[in-house]
Design a protein that fits this description.
By secondary structure, the chain is an alpha/beta fold. It contains 11 helices and 16 strands. It binds threonylcarbamoyladenylate (TXA) and magnesium ion.
C-alpha cells in the first residue's frame, strides 16, 4: 500500500480516506493517533492489524464537539455532574473519560466492554479531521503495539509507511505523553491511566477520585496489563532507593562491552515531552541499555514513572 503524506492544508483529503474506511495517522497534543471511523467496524479492525494490537485492548474515540458525546455514550444523572465539571475545565485536552457506550459504537472499538473511552483533543488538525470526516474517530497511539508512542512525523512514518492509507505531517506533539484516562462508570471516579492532565488538578475537582490498582487480575483498563512503550534497548529503572547502584550496573555493562546511556530525567529540560523520542533515538543508534533513575511522582511525572515502569526490562530497588 502506498501511504499518502498530507500537509496541514490537506486535512479534507485525509478526511475522505477516513470516510472510505481507511486508516489515517494524525497529530494530537499528546501523541500521534492512528485513526479510523469509529462507527465502521471493518475500518476499526484495520487498526488492530496495522498495530499488531491485542483485540482485548479497547480504543479511545475522539470527538470534536461536546454534542457528539450524547451520540455515543449513555450518561446517568449522577455521572452528568462530574462529567460536566471535567469537560468544562479540561476539554479540549489530554483527558479521556470512560462512560457507558451506546450501540452505535461497535464492539471492536470497546473490545467487548459495555463502556467507551472518549476524548476531545486540543489540536487544530485533529479537530478538523474529525469535523471534516463527520464521524468520531477511534484512535490508539500511532505506534506498533508495545513500542514507544509516536510523537513526531518520523516515528509514525517509520512504523506505518506502506501499512496505512495516510499520515498527516505536522510538528512534534507538545505533551509527548498520552492522555489521562478517568472512569466515570464506577462508584467513585477512577484514574485508570495517569497522563497529560495532572492527578492533583483532577482530585481538586473530584475529591473522591481514586487511582486504580494495577495489581488486580482483571484490570479495569485492559491496556494496563500489557508491556508497553518499550524501545528495543533494555530499559533499567533505578527506584529512588537504588540510585547508588547505577555505578555498579554501568561498570558491569562496560566490562561486557555493551553500549548504554544514562538518562537523568531531572537534568533534561522538558523530559516528559521528549521521553518517547529519546527511546526511539536510542534504537536508531542501536544502544543496548538505557539506565534511568526514578523521579518523584508529582504532576506529569506520575505519568512519566508509569510509562518508565511499564517500559522497563528490569526495575532495581
Ligand atoms: O493521548 C491519548 O490518549 C492518545 C491519543 C491518540 O489520543 N491515545 C492513546 O490510545 O493513548 P491508546 O490506545 O494507546 O491507549 C488507550 C488506553 C488504553 O490503556 C485502553 O486500555 C484504555 O485507554 N481504554 C480504552 N477504552 C477503554 C474502556 N472502555 N475502558 C477502560 N479503559 C479503556
Ligand atoms: Mg498506546
Amino acid at each position: 500500500m502506498i501511504t499518502k503524506i498530507f500537509n496541514q492544508k490537506q486535512i479534507k483529503k485525509a478526511a475522505k480516506l477516513i470516510k472510505k474506511g481507511e486508516l489515517v495517522a494524525f497529530p494530537t497534543e499528546t501523541v500521534y493517533g492512528l485513526g479510523a471511523n469509529a462507527f465502521d467496524s471493518n475500518a476499526v479492525k484495520k487498526i488492530f492489524i496495522a498495530k499488531g494490537r491485542p483485540y482485548d485492548n479497547p480504543l479511545i474515540v475522539h470527538i470534536a464537539k461536546k454534542e457528539q458525546l450524547n451520540e455515543i455514550a449513555k450518561i446517568s444523572k449522577k455521572q452528568k455532574k462530574n462529567l460536566n465539571k471535567l469537560i468544562q475545565k479540561f476539554w479540549p485536552g489530554p483527558l479521556t473519560i470512560v462512560l457507558k457506550k451506546k450501540n452505535v459504537i461497535p464492539k471492536e472499538v470497546s473490545a467487548g466492554l459495555d463502556s467507551v473511552a472518549i476524548r476531545m483533543p486540543n489540536h487544530r488538525i485533529a479537530l478538523n479531521l474529525i469535523k471534516y470526516s463527520k464521524v468520531p474517530i477511534a484512535a490508539p497511539s500511532a505506534n506498533i503495539s508495545g513500542k514507544p508512542s509516536g510523537t513526531c512525523f518520523q516515528d509514525v512514518y517509520d512504523d506505518f509507511n506502506g501499512k496505512i492509507a495516510g499520515i498527516i505531517k505536522s510538528n512534534e506533539c507538545k505533551i509527548g505523553l498520552e492522555s489521562t484516562v478517568i472512569d466515570l462508570t464506577t462508584k467513585n471516579p477512577l484514574l485508570l491511566r495517569p497522563g497529560g492532565t495532572d492527578f492533583e488538578s483532577l482530585k481538586k475537582l473530584l475529591p473522591n477520585l481514586k487511582i486504580a490498582s494495577e495489581k488486580s487480575n482483571k484490570p479495569k483498563s485492559p491496556g494496563m496489563k500489557y508491556k508497553h512503550y518499550s524501545p528495543d534497548a533494555k530499559v533499567i529503572l533505578f527506584e529512588k532507593t537504588a540510585k547508588s547502584k547505577i555505578k555498579d550496573f554501568s561498570n558491569k555493562l562496560k566490562k561486557e562491552n555493551k553500549s548504554f546511556i544514562l538518562i537523568n530525567p531531572k537534568k533534561i529540560k522538558n523530559f516528559p515531552r521528549k521521553m518517547f523520542r529519546i527511546f526511539r533515538n536510542c534504537d536508531r543508534k542501536k544502544i543496548e541499555y538505557v539506565l534511568i533513575p526514578a523521579v518523584e511522582e508529582r504532576g506529569i511525572y506520575l505519568a512519566v514513572m508509569n510509562r518508565l515502569r511499564k517500559s522497563s526490562s528490569k526495575i532495581i530497588k
